[in-house]
Fold this protein.
Amino acid sequence: QVQLVESGGGLVQAGGSLRLSCAASGRTLSSAMMGWFRQAPGKEREFVAAVSWNGGITSYADSLKGRFTISRDTAKNTVYLQMNRLKPEDTAVYYCHVHILGNDYWGQGTQVTVSS
């Protein structure tokens, strides 16, 4: 089992920044991909970004490249999402995700609200 706890969400004005954190615990996460998804009201959950265990490989949704940066601290079992130049359309619940050994684990989600 893997437990994921997100933090860092909140209310921000358009153009501002937020950094989300996701702390993982419960089992070794070596070789696991960690990442973020988001779900806006009335929409399906969508991929945001992912990072390999050692941080060497990253992947982003095309529409978010250049504004969002994912990183990982292996010593702390934590993954971060730095979000810059936020837009009202970035408003959503952001979920931390881990995929390991064929299993998917999700955090409880953290709300990000961007006001215009």
Remarks:
- The first strand starts at residue 3 and ends at 7.
